[in-house]
Write a structure and sequence with these properties.
This protein is an alpha/beta fold. It contains eleven helices and ten strands. The chain starts with a helix and ends with a helix. Bound molecules: 5'-(D-alanylamino)-5'-deoxyuridine (48C).
């Protein structure tokens, strides 16, 4: 073949034999690659073997879920009626979103002890009996538990039979004239026992109100580095209705365009170290407010909410974990695990 021909000939001339082979090879490559992709896509969308198959994210998912068998519904969908994960990937714990057997086995292997702190100061000692009896029935059943009971009336702490691996530690503390002060001082009193007891005796701390009773299982599913509980009055509310402290003069101030959820002051916890950091920070903030002659709108609960805005919880408990039947029953509440006890405020507060 003339060299010019090779250079200047028509299409035929351009497509020399060598070039034909290269083009043919490239086309073969593309074809086989394309074929492979096609097969993969067909497999991907039609594969219906077990959990290891990629979860179909096509829009048809929503209208063919009734086709999913029970196994898939439990393991893929869990709950589709409630929010189960935050934007920072913290799980929100609802009935049906976890497997107790798996979690209990994990924690039994870790041989953890869980501390439950509760304050029964002045007349609130009357709540202890029901609190402890129901905790024995439902709280961390099968695991080691230390009940830390902070009270100014140690002699009035009731005798309650405790199961194996569970013990009662009565911590005498001072009282205060106002119930708001008592509520707020809990942060200080918890942080004070960090060094002396908690760091050596337990792995996790769960800090709760005493005018409550356990009504269903509260187990290791709640445990995480740092957790809070959605307040029953605000779990479905918009941010602007949250009763955060909005006065910039207070250390509990949360700007109106910040905040994720409204957390209840009556149920929070985490590892001993994380709870120490939280309670110390909240106590210090309350002391600054006190020196400035201001008290946050909802006392320690306001400071807890402020803390959680800037120290995101690693797990959030649903209102199953702190409910008040005065708020009625909700379809989404498959369980009411920790319930407010009826009380006559006049009869027990500041008494
Ligand atoms: O132990 C007391 N005694 C009081 O006179 C007032 C409050 N308290 C503690 O602070 C109890 O542990 C209460 O549960 C807690 C504040 N929370 C409440 O009074 C309602 N559960 C909101």
């Amino acid at each position: 073949m003339d060299k010019d021909q090779g250079k200047t000939g028509g299409v035929k001339g351009y497509l020399t034999k060598r070039r034909l082979c290269v083009v043919g090879f490239i086309m073969l490559l593309f074809f086989s690659f394309g074929f492979g992709v096609g097969v993969g896509f067909v497999w991907y969308t039609s594969n219906d073997t077990g959990l290891d198959a990629p979860i179909k994210i096509s829009s048809t998912m929503s209208n063919n879920t009734q086709d999913l068998d029970d196994f898939h519904k439990v393991n893929l969908l869990r709950r589709s009626d409630v929010l189960t994960m935050t934007l920072w990937f913290a799980p929100i714990v609802w009935e049906g979103t976890y497997n107790s057997e798996i979690l209990n086995e994990q924690f039994r292997q870790r041989n953890v002890t869980v501390g439950l702190t509760v304050f029964a100061i002045k007349k609130y000692v009357v709540f202890l009996k029901k609190f402890l009896e129901t905790a024995e029935m439902y709280f961390m059943v099968g695991h080691r538990v230390n009940y830390y009971i902070f009270t100014d009336r140690p002699e009035e702490v009731p005798e309650v039979v405790l199961k194996e691996g569970r013990k009662k530690v009565v911590l005498p503390v001072q009282n205060y004239p106002r119930w708001q002060e008592i509520s707020m001082r809990r942060m200080e009193m918890i942080s004070n026992f960090f060094q002396q007891r908690f760091i050596n005796e337990v792995s996790y701390l769960v800090c709760v109100d005493v005018d409550m009773r356990f009504n269903d299982q509260v187990g290791v599913e709640i445990l995480s580095d740092l957790f809070g509980t959605l307040h029953p009055g605000f779990y479905a509310a918009e941010r602007q209705s949250f009763t955060y402290e909005h006065r910039p003069a207070s250390q509990a101030y949360v700007p109106s365009d910040e905040g994720d959820f409204y957390y209840a002051g009556g149920f929070f916890g985490g590892t001993v170290m994380e709870v120490y950091k939280l309670t110390k920070k909240c106590h210090e903030a309350m002391m600054v407010d006190k020196a400035n002659g201001i008290e946050a709108i909802w006392h320690d609960e306001s400071h807890l909410n402020k803390y959680f805005v800037y120290h995101k919880p690693t797990k959030i408990l649903s209102p199953e974990y702190l409910w008040d039947d005065d708020m009625g029953r909700r379809e989404i509440l498959k369980k009411r695990r920790f319930l407010a006890v009826r009380k006559n405020h006049a009869a027990i507060r500041n008494k």
